[in-house]
Amino acid sequence: MKLAIGNDHVAVDMKLEIKAFLEEKGIEVIDVGTGERTSFPYPVSGYRVARLVADGEVDGGVLICGTGVGISLAANKVPGIRACVCSEPYTAKLSKQHNNTNIIAFGARVIGVELAKMIVEEWLNAEFLGGRHGTRVDMITEIEQTGKLAEAEKTAP
Ligand code: RB5
């Protein structure tokens, strides 16, 4: 397995710990940065990881900023990306099983590194369930690709 990881200036230490955690599991990790601790724009790392995931260069991505919000918002602008901010393992697991997330994000100002490891672990171990969940994820893709959702036009509000 190969993953990409990226962060902003707030999350350098947590990134390094999570990277080491992944490598100890035998996972190859592409670190897109940053090592900058003063100021670094989270969209840059969010985009870099998202690009690698969307292009099929890696099997998934991990993104960390102060809250996980900005960096995941940036990643989600890249077509094909489903990035989710998680502060606990249950959402991380369900985000893969039901939503087929391909990037997991969290906030270095929000959670500690041990909880972050549990979140990553649950996410890695989970598998997309497909079926009715696949139909719903396909709707997300339809919105992404066309700006519209046919099902929403035909069902009454
Ligand atoms: C940086 O100050 C902070 O805005 C960033 O790490 C992140 O929390 C944004 O969503």
Describe the structure.
The protein has 157 residues and is an alpha/beta fold. It folds into two domains: 2-126, 3-Layer(aba) Sandwich (Ribose 5-phosphate Isomerase B, Chain: A), CATH 3.40.1400.10; 131-157, no CATH class. It has seven helices and five strands. It has helices at residues 12-24, 42-54, 69-76, 89-97, 113-125, 132-146, 150-154, and strands at 2-7, 28-31, 60-65, 83-85, 103-107. The protein has a five-stranded parallel β-sheet with strand order 2-1-3-5-4, sandwiched between helices. Helix 4 (89-97) packs parallel to helix 5 (113-125). The longest helix has 15 residues, at 132-146. It is globular. It starts with a strand and ends with a helix. The mean pLDDT is 97.
N- to C-terminal distance: 43 Å
What general outline do the C-alpha atoms trace? globular
Q: Roughly what fraction of the amino acids lie in strands? A: 15-25%
Q: Estimate the helix proportion, in percent.
A: 40-55%
CATH topology annotation of the largest domain: Ribose 5-phosphate Isomerase B, Chain: A
List each distinct ligand once: D-ribose
**C-alpha Rg (nearest Å):** 16 Å
Backbone structural class: alpha/beta
Please count the helical segments. 7
CATH superfamily of the largest domain: Sugar-phosphate isomerase, RpiB/LacA/LacB
Q: Please identify, by name, the CATH architecture of the largest domain.
A: 3-Layer(aba) Sandwich
Q: In total, how many beta strands?
A: 5
Low-confidence region ranges: none
Q: Largest beta sheet, briefly?
A: 5 strands, parallel
Give the strand order of the largest sheet, numbering strands 1, 2, ... along the chain.
Answer: 2-1-3-5-4
- Tally of domains: 2
Mean pLDDT across the residues is 97
Give the helices and strands as they follow along the chain: EHEHEHEHEHHH
CATH class of the largest domain: Alpha Beta
